[in-house]
């Protein structure tokens, strides 16, 4: 599998999981992808996604309601642990 494969699968997962609220939880995205990809590959894909003009990766501002799993599986970008993803592209 290539970076293009996981990047495309990541966008598909985010689009499907964010259909109703506009945002997908990183925990859910990881669960969607974990059967086909390892943690390091998923982390790298999320970081590429965050640099894409159409990708958004953000912290959940409601920190008190984060589960332990949300905290463990967050992706660190800059000074922030991020828990949410959104795709603004077509």
Can you tell me the CATH architecture? 2-Layer Sandwich
Radius of gyration: 12 Å
Q: Quaternary status of these chains? A: single chain
SSE pattern: HEHHEHEEE
Mean pLDDT: 94
Share of helix, binned: 40-55%
- What general outline do the C-alpha atoms trace? globular
Strand order of the largest sheet: 1-5-2
With helices defined by DSSP (H or I, 4 residues minimum), what is the helix count? 4
Task: Give me the CATH fold name.
Answer: Nucleotidyltransferase, domain 5
Q: Please outline the major beta sheet.
A: 3 strands, antiparallel
Count of separate structural domains:
1
Share in β-strands: 15-25%
Termini gap:
24 Å
Count of β-strands: 5
Helices and strands, with pairings:
Elements: H1 3-17, E1 24-25, H2 26-33, H3 39-51, E2 55-58, H4 68-72, E3 75-77, E4 80-82, E5 84-87
Antiparallel strand pairs: 1-5, 2-5, 3-4
How would you characterize this protein structure?
By secondary structure, the chain is of the alpha+beta class. The chain has a single domain, classed as Nucleotidyltransferase, domain 5 (2-Layer Sandwich), CATH 3.30.420. It is built from 4 helices and 5 strands. The chain has helices at residues 3-17, 26-33, 39-51, 68-72, and strands at 24-25, 55-58, 75-77, 80-82, 84-87. The chain has a 3-stranded antiparallel sheet. A two-stranded antiparallel ribbon has the order 3-4. Helix 1 packs across helix 2 and helix 1 crosses helix 3 (39-51). The mean pLDDT is 94.
